[in-house]
What we know:
Layout: H1 16-46, H2 49-55, H3 60-66, H4 70-88, H5 98-112, H6 116-128, H7 137-160, H8 170-190, H9 197-206
Helix pairs in contact: 1-2, 1-4, 1-6, 5-7, 5-9, 6-8, 7-8, 8-9
Amino acid sequence: MTIDETNxxxxxxxxxxxxxxxxxxxxxxxxLEAALExxxxxxxxxxxxxxxxxxxxxxxxxxxxxFPSKSVLLAAxxxxxxxxxxxxxxxxxxxxxxxxxxxxxxxxxxxxxxxxGVVELYCVLSAEATAPSHPAHAYFVERYATTQLRIAxxxxxxxxxxxxxxxxxxxxxxxxxxxxMDGLQVQWLLDRASVDMAAELRNHLARxxxxxIS
Length: 214
């Protein structure tokens, strides 16, 4: 869920609550897109709120009305990225087939190729956030742990029905998938013409499972 720090008690512009809400939502979306570009290009530490505000033609004070701090803005940008990801990968949904989840990872890799700014942001921030003092450090620690657990459970569900190749261990398989996806993103950013992230991931998964990838 996207983080929303707007004050419900703040005075509303003329036009009524409905119009004001729509305008506020549009403004927040524009700010998030601008922040994504700024943080992706220069990293979180180098990117400034002033630069983000300039891209949406508003003052820094106006931006802070929607996002009261730079770290809050970063959290909202990361939450938006995760929203798009989870729409494609159905982790642990009731009745979800584990092969459908793996197919969702392939679809996510294909989607990422259509949003280079998001991929740049993730690669830059995940590298910066290895420092414990970085505001996104806790986010990435939790995200990697949660993602690894969810993918491992997916492979474990496959193992229960004999869907894994001999010698494949769910935890190790999950780590290999995450490492491949992250590594492919870096290689793709450097040479987009010769790297097909979805195809490479599909081929890797095919070597781990005995069932066809959807």
